[in-house]
Amino acid sequence: MNLELLESFGQNYPEEFDGTLDCISLAVTCAFNRRGTLLAVGCNDGRIVLWDFLTRGIAKIISAHVHPVCSLSWSRNGHRLLSASTDNNVCIWDVLSGECERKYQFPSPILKVQFHPRNSSLFLVCPMRHAAIVVSTEGQHQTVPVDDDSDLNIVASFDRRGQYIYTGNAKGRVLVLSNPALEVKASFKVTQGTTSATAVKSIEFARRGDCFLINTADRVIRVYCSKEVLTCGTDGEPEPIQKLQDLVNKTMWKKCCFSGDGEYVCAGSARMHALYIWEKSIGNLVKILHGTKGELLLDVAWHPVRPIIASISSGVVSVWAQNQVENWSAFAPDFKELDENVEYDERESEFDLSDEDKSVEAGQTERQEDDLEVDVTTIERVAAFCSSDEEDGGLEGSEETLEYLPIAPEVEDPEEGWGASAGGGDEGNLSVGGKRPPPPRSKENVPKKKKFRSFDMELQGAPLDEIHPLLSNRVKDKQQPGSKKNAAGRQKVHSGKSEEKKMKEKGKIPK
């Protein structure tokens, strides 16, 4: 598949709804791998469903956690998957086998996990009401310094190459720290208007280019250039490239992300299932994608290569894509599309087995083809899959990227005598139904599961009695409708008694 042919000459963003992915259980969060061939979906029952995004089918289901999965992150080569659940556990999974390799138990809820973009042995964890920490796969961890010890509502993210860590707090203060030294290289404050600060809700980086966005509580998405931020240094005042917002409805943003090429910004509304898409260079709103009314958005992910968006609402993954129109004349210039049957007058030698006129020309082309040498062994690099620093070989050539998962067929109802020996000496072992009973599995035949390594992470000053936001919202939702029903029931009883008294007073009901 040549990705250069997929580049459309028009807009490069999705325009319409293109179906759903039903994970059986309720979906909570999702993440594409680096190539966009696999989509990992974390569910509320703790399972992780891996979708083959080309065939739109389930490739693997990992029974990962007991509680809902709240955050997912792929390693660079796609062989490992990092997950966090609401029971304060973080796990690393082998995608091919589906087995757990490492498990980290934290004392407080985890809001976000992220693999290092270039080093799969490091990952970033954002605990609730605690400073972000950088964890190695062997269990060692470093606490990312904060600007204000009294404000621990920290969001953090690696930059595109993992050279810096960007953190933001509830007072609008953004720190840029080098990795792994964790030294402050730059800092600035996100202000609303002239003086008042606004809380930082999330920081997201573009897959290409040097831009990143900051989603703040004042309902404005600010796009910055990382080079300019580093140039300004500590206590700098970098100006955002764009300020994106919904001026009509004043929408709060649940999740924001860049397109695969970094030219568009997508933001999901916190009030309803609606996706807003802006062009980054100009700042104009180009498209609003509306989902089902009454649904609340949970997560948004843009495909790394194609103009496709996956959004989650009401436990279902919705896919948004472009409207593909078949244009056969683009492949064959003399191809004509007909609305109805047309009588065609064939030429005299058009459908003959051997055309005398073309025999001479065919001999010449055969000689030319013999002189040509076609190289079928060299694999050319696809520019869309390479980073800007990988043009000369770099990292991608030294690692094997996992793009697809092998699927083994499962035989549900085997035929009679399936698995019988050639001699047919086991007829007496057939059951009454004519099917062979399964052979007894000895302890030697049962495959042994790899025992994963477990680490207890100790964080100083971490809150122990905090409830994850996903769980706290559910408790509120359960309490509100119940109280309304009780109140309504009481009102009906009182109104019924008053009506009965009125009827008795009128003499229509005998006492």
Describe the protein.
The radius of gyration is 30 Å and the shape is globular. The chain has 3 helices and 29 strands. β4 and β5 form a beta hairpin. The strands form 7 sheets. Strands 6-7-8-9-29 form a 5-stranded mixed sheet, with no helix packed on it. A 4-stranded antiparallel sheet has the order 1-28-27-26, with no helix packed on it. The chain has 511 residues and is mostly beta strands. 11% of the residues lie in helices and 31% in strands. The termini are far apart. It has helices spanning 226-232, 359-371, 469-506, and strands at residues 16-21, 27-32, 38-43, 47-52, 57-63, 69-74, 80-85, 89-94, 100-105, 110-115, 122-127, 133-136, 141-143, 155-158, 164-168, 173-178, 184-189, 200-205, 211-216, 221-225, 242-244, 253-258, 264-269, 274-279, 285-290, 297-302, 309-313, 316-321, 453-456. The longest helix is centred in the C-terminal third of the chain and has 38 residues, at 469-506.
